[in-house]
Design a protein that fits this description.
alpha/beta; Rossmann fold; 3-stranded antiparallel sheet; globular
Length: 321
């Protein structure tokens, strides 16, 4: 088994010590300044009062809270022929945002999901980014994690370590993994507590609009069922409006125990990137971005960002748009 670099393990006791290449083929870019037409409301990054289950009728109860910031989230869709082209573009996008935030605030806070999203980041380990990105200013978090040991094959940390973190010089003390010695509930509470310490130290910014932590960039993938992070269709955790981090013990995908950022935190990010590849996800992409009149709202349809949300799609994922 490959060795896994030890990251900062979040816990209360550590709270005070936490310390240009472009694609050869230009992508098709679509700007969306309003919510997708399939929704009956405008989604915004605030503490909306969602009710379970998520549906067009129940989501309408959040419309009055959403109206205040409706349309403020700029949405872009970038389409590419292949997943390789997506990876090339995503590397430049991420590196450009890193440079922007390092210049503006001296740090870059980025939260990762798991799965195919991590493989899409592989170009960051190559020239020119490996030598030009200010890796020492990065602070890396997980938008969701499976409650397993860090060297377990299901660990999002292990996947990110093997593909990205072990190949770039991010200080281990700025890589914030969950405490895998705790239960799912305990790990979620611990992660939230330590995020609050980092907010107090101004490592993580605070959203003036919502009061939730404002990550510079959250990198997300989507499942064929329209889930993101560990927020699954019809699951009550999609309705959480006060916690920063929550836990689930009944994930429809194994392993069952996970922690996840909540929608108020995800949607308070300055930039959110949704990276989707494969025709098995085309139906969910169509429901999120197309003209679908389906009565139920998928979790991915609730995704927003304070500054900009960008969808990166390969040909298969975009095939039904």
């Amino acid at each position: 088994m490959a060795s896994v670099r030890s990251p900062t393990r979040l816990s209360l006791s550590l709270g005070t010590t936490l310390s240009s290449s472009r694609t050869s083929r230009a992508p098709a870019i679509i700007l969306l300044r309003s919510a997708p037409r399939s929704l009956s409301l405008s989604i915004k990054p605030v503490r909306s009062n969602f009710k379970n289950p998520i549906s067009a009728s129940s989501a309408s109860s959040a419309s009055s809270a959403a109206a205040e910031m409706a349309g403020q989230c700029q949405k872009k869709v970038e389409k590419f022929q292949t997943a390789e082209e997506v990876a090339v573009r995503l590397a430049k996008y991420t590196a450009d945002l890193s440079a922007k935030f390092v210049k503006e605030r001296g740090a870059f806070t980025v939260a990762l999901s798991g799965g195919s999203l991590i493989y899409a980041l592989r170009k960051l380990t190559e020239a020119p980014y490996k030598d030009t990105v200010e890796w020492g200013r990065w602070h890396v978090f997980w938008v969701d994690e499976r409650v397993v040991k860090k060297d377990h094959p299901d660990s999002n940390y292990k996947l990110a370590h093997d593909v990205l973190l072990s190949k770039v010089p991010i200080p281990p003390g700025q890589v914030y993994a969950i405490n895998d010695a705790l239960s799912a509930e305990g790990a979620a509470e611990d992660y939230e507590t330590c995020l609050k310490h980092l907010v107090q130290r101004n490592v993580i910014a605070t959203s003036k609009a919502t009061g939730f932590p404002k990550f510079d960039l959250i990198l997300l993938g989507m499942g064929p069922d329209g889930h993101l992070a560990s927020l699954f269709p019809g699951h009550p955790r999609c309705n959480e409006k006060t916690k920063w981090v929550t836990h689930i013990e009944d994930s429809p995908k194994p392993p069952p125990e996970r922690i996840t950022f909540t929608f108020p935190v995800i949607n308070s990010a300055a930039y959110n990137a949704m990276v989707v590849a494969g025709d098995n996800k085309a139906d969910a992409v169509q429901r999120a971005l197309g003209n679908s009149q389906h009565p139920d709202t998928l979790p991915v349809q609730l995704l927003a960002a304070e500054d900009e949300l960008t969808w990166f799609l390969d040909q298969g994922a975009a095939s039904k748009l």
